């Protein structure tokens, strides 16, 4: 803040208080015959027969104003209210923030560091640590994962044992720490419409549906071996190293649970998945959370399915 601006603010604040009081003193001591007797006076205003009284303002109001002025003067001298004048207490909002964060860190760093010394499975079986993890999850994860167990298309359910990137404690922790990018290439232009249909028919048999057209399924199986198995593994078992989902269960991430209810809905979803592919991002958290918080979160996520 420039010196001029600082001076200007000071003059405006104190000046307006001063002017206010000069005005009041002037009104109180003005030679006015109406204040001489305590008789009822009328103002100059009248509306036909209706006229308004003209009493002086109650004294209590005046004292209240004096008290407010006194309060303001004390406040202005203690706190930074007059330009760059820091106030006798030298209070600043930045310092207050720093102190509070410092206090928080002192208490919580110690508490969280104790968790860091424990294994993820131990954390998962400790109710207090789990609750802490749940709170962290609600703050940092639920905007995408919601309550972890809810069905949300394009987001993995974290309460089942069907994992994209693996469900071992260390794998879960690595997922949260470094994030993951699930990439499924689009196969529409490679396979053509017919090829996509055949492959989808084969994927449907992996998911447990009876083959409607065995020839189509046989052709699809060949496509699968050529184009899909190096990620989804032979027979669609999935591969956690690439985040490729298992296709043999009835759990779908990119197909809504409503579509997956009917065979036709599911097949349409599978075809779209094969033709268009996906890029799906789980953001890294090493830069927003500290190691101990991530450790506790891994314990909480592990506890959801174990
Ligand atoms: C911006 C949205 C977003 C946020 C925030 C987010 N996630 Fe995720 N998460 C995803 C997506 C999308 C995936 C699936 C990634 C994929 O398709 O490979 C995922 C995957 C995961 C997985 C792997 C699931 C599996 O089957 O292997 C875990 C574990 C996970 N998230 C935990 C968390 C935790 C814990 C947090 C909070 C610290 C969090 N996520 C925050 C979007 C998010
Ligand atoms: C480069 C590796 C890769 C190849 C090749 C690949 N996929 Fe995928 N596929 C993935 C990944 C990774 C996902 C999960 C995407 C995500 O994380 O969002 C996926 C998702 C899917 C899904 C959706 C699963 C769900 O739960 O919603 C289907 C269906 C699928 N793939 C079928 C196929 C078929 C059929 C082929 C061959 C034509 C194929 N994929 C080839 C990696 C691959």
Any descriptors?
306 residues; mainly alpha; Cytochrome Bc1 Complex, Chain D, domain 2; 3 domains; two-stranded antiparallel ribbon; 4 strands; elongated; binds heme C
How is this structure best summarized?
With 306 residues, the protein is mainly alpha-helical.
Describe the structure.
This protein has 306 residues and is mainly alpha-helical. It has three domains: 33 residues; 95 residues, Cytochrome c-like domain (Cytochrome Bc1 Complex, Chain D, domain 2), CATH 1.10.760; 100 residues, Cytochrome Bc1 Complex, Chain D, domain 2 (Orthogonal Bundle). Helix content is 57%, strand content 7%. It has twelve helices and four strands, in the order H-E-E-H-H-H-H-H-H-E-H-H-H-H-E-H. The strands form two sheets. The protein has a two-stranded antiparallel ribbon. A two-stranded antiparallel sheet has the order 3-4. Helix 3 crosses helix 12. The relative contact order is 0.12. The mean pLDDT is 91. The structure holds heme C (HEC) (2 copies).
């Amino acid at each position: 803040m420039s010196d001029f601006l600082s001076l200007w603010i000071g003059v405006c604040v104190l000046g307006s208080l001063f002017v206010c009081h000069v005005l009041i003193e002037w009104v109180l001591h003005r030679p006015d015959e109406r204040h001489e007797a305590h008789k009822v006076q009328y103002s100059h205003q009248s509306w036909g027969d209706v006229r308004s009284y003209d009493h002086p303002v109650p004294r209590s109001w005046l004292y209240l104003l004096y008290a407010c002025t006194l309060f303001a003067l004390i406040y202005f001298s203690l706190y930074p209210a007059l330009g760059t004048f820091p106030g006798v207490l030298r209070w600043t909002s930045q310092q207050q923030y720093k102190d509070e964060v410092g206090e928080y860190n002192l208490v919580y760093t110690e508490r969280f560091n104790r968790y860091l010394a424990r294994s993820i499975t131990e954390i998962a079986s400790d109710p207090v640590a789990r609750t802490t993890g749940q709170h962290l999850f609600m703050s940092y994860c639920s905007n995408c994962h919601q309550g972890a167990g809810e069905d949300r298309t394009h987001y993995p359910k974290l309460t089942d044992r069907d994992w994209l990137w693996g469900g071992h404690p260390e794998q879960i922790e690595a997922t949260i720490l470094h994030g993951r990018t699930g990439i499924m290439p689009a196969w529409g232009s490679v396979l053509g419409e017919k090829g996509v249909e055949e492959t989808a028919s084969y994927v449907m048999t992996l998911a447990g549906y009876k083959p409607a057209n065995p020839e189509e399924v046989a052709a699809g199986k060949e496509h699968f071996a050529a184009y899909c198995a190096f990620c989804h593994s032979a027979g669609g078992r999935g591969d956690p190293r690439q985040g490729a989902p298992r296709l043999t269960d009835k759990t779908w991430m990119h197909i809504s649970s409503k579509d997956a209810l009917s065979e036709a809905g599911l097949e349409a979803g599978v075809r779209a998945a094969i033709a268009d592919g996906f890029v799906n991002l789980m953001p890294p958290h090493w830069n927003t959370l500290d190691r101990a918080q991530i450790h506790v979160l891994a314990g909480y996520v592990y506890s959801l399915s174990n």
